[in-house]
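Hi R.,

As promised on Friday, here is the backbone we talked about, encoded as structure tokens. Could you run it through your design pipeline when you get a chance and send me back a sequence?
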């Protein structure tokens, strides 16, 4: 299937809590390195920068502390956590196991519209990679994760994997100069088409192809 042949309409977004909107906004600032590792995180400044209320921002920051994306420091307040190069391979290895489960569940449980939407997102990533549009690529990547997670209907696995995906996304932004955008797009397309096929083995194989890409990318950075 050519990634350009997918014509489905996006699924309507579900209604979201203000704290979840705040979390996504802050995550984007951190993952795209607008908030650099080691930089201070001030609740009032984040609220002003995102245009969100102090209460949802506070809740979002507490969630980020719990997953290690933000660290509380004595007498220094909150800081964006650093990127642990060696530890990143453990993140990818752990994510591999969870992604296999999520891919298998999604292949088995996804609706027809979800399967089409998953492939549509991967096709958008492929097109963005061809055009060298990194921001478009990452937006479609985030959407692909969201829909495949919903399709899996496995909330425990999703709750475990999301913090790891955030760390992988930030790692990629930090070292994107060493990455191959088209290679990543092809891996995501294999993952999406595996789920869309309804074949659990194909979905797991696609997931492993994606994790192989992330692992090889991380090893290139560590070995430099």
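Update: got your reply. Pasting your designed sequence below so it's all in one thread:
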């Amino acid at each position: 299937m050519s990634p350009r042949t997918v014509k489905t309409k996006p699924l309507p977004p579900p209604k979201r809590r203000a704290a979840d909107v705040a979390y996504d906004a802050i995550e984007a600032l951190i993952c795209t390195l607008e908030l650099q590792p080691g930089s201070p995180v001030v609740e009032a400044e984040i609220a002003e920068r995102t245009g969100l209320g102090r209460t949802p921002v506070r809740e979002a920051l507490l969630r980020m502390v719990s997953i290690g994306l933000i660290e509380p420091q004595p007498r220094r307040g909150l800081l964006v956590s650093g990127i642990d190069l060696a530890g990143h391979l453990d993140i990818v290895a752990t994510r591999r196991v969870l992604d296999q489960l999520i891919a298998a569940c999604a292949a088995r449980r996804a609706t027809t519209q979800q399967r089409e939407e998953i492939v549509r997102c991967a096709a958008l990533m492929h097109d963005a990679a061809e055009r060298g549009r990194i921001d478009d690529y990452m937006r479609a990547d985030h959407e692909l994760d969201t829909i495949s997670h919903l399709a899996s209907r496995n909330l425990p696995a999703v709750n475990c994997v999301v913090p790891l995906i955030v760390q992988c996304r930030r790692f990629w932004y930090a070292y994107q100069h060493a990455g191959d955008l088209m290679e990543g797009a092809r891996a995501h397309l294999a993952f999406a088409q595996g789920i869309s096929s309804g074949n659990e083995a194909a979905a797991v194989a696609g997931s492993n192809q994606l994790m192989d890409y992330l692992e090889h990318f991380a090893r290139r950075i560590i070995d430099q």
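One thing I noticed while checking it: The two ends are 37 Å apart (CA to CA).

Thanks again,
M.
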